[in-house]
Amino acid sequence: MRTMTGSARAVYAAVLAFTMLWSQGAGSVQQARSMEKPVIVAEAAMRMLAPVDYYTGTVISREQARLAAEVSGRLLWVAEVGASIDEGGVVARIDDVLLREEHAEREADVARIKARLGFLKLEAARLQKLARSNNAAQSQLEQVESDRLGARSELKAAQARERRSAALLERTRLRAPFTGIVTERLLNAGEWADEGAAVVAMTDPLNLEIQGWVSVSALPFLEPGASVSFEREGKVYRGQVRARVPVGDTRSRLYELRVSLPDGEWKVGESVRIAVPAAIPRKVLSIPRDALVLRRSAISVFVVDDESIAHRVPVIPGIASGPWIEVKGELHPGDRVVTRGGERLRDGQKVKVQGKGSTQ
Question: Where is the signal peptide (predicted)?
Answer without folding.
Answer: 1-28
